[in-house]
Design goal:
Elements (H helix, E strand, L loop, with lengths): L3 E3 L2 E7 L1 H19 L5 E5 L4 H10 L5 E11 L6 E6 L9 E9 L3 H11 L5 E9 L12 E5 L5 E2 L15 E4 L4
Parallel strand pairs: 3-4, 3-6, 6-7, 7-8
Antiparallel strand pairs: 1-2, 2-10, 4-5, 9-10
Helix pairs in contact: 1-2
The structure holds inosinic acid and magnesium ion.
Inosinic acid (IMP) binds next to strand 6, helix 3 and strand 9.
Length: 180
Amino acid sequence: MKEVTYNGLTFVPYIEKEKIDARIRELAEQIKADCNGTRPLLLCVLNGAFPFASDLFRALDIDAEISFIRMKSYEGTSSTGVVSEVLGLTEDISGRTVVVIEDIIDTGNTIARLVKLLEEKQPANLKVATLLFKPDALRCDVRPDYVGFQIPTKFIIGFGLDIDGLARNLSDIYILKDEN
Ligand code: IMP
Ligand code: MG
């Protein structure tokens, strides 16, 4: 692995694919154990979580379903601030075990809004799995149930994570080089 450059910024290797694969297999085992015979519905949050969701889903050797959602956020009236909506959820999740699959939790705003909207639909059990978590950046009262890697508050790319739409197809995860 070597350095990569996007938008004039240099990134250095941070987490290798082999390490990501091994960690995803561990998370799948944890989820399997926690699902306890229920048939979970995985909800992959597009776009960034799709490589993680794909690997996690295949590592999960129990009956499970997967679906793909997207968050839409816009400014509401001044009294409501940012309003969010879940797009693409066609399944009835009431009474089900649902595992939300995210790529990264940074401030936690996105996942906090999503969890609130999904809770309204009354799943039996709602869990959050994120490949990456920046605990020092967290500004919301959310705690992911399954975390691949805790990382410092720095910008990373690869394995689904983008910089202006690029770099999602890198197999490994890269971190912004300090001298940028
Ligand atoms: P939030 O701050 O937890 O709401 O994160 C919102 C979104 O910001 C994530 O779903 C990612 O799309 C993006 N994001 C946060 N940190 C990074 C990063 O280090 N690299 C690439 N995207 C990021
Ligand atoms: Mg994202």
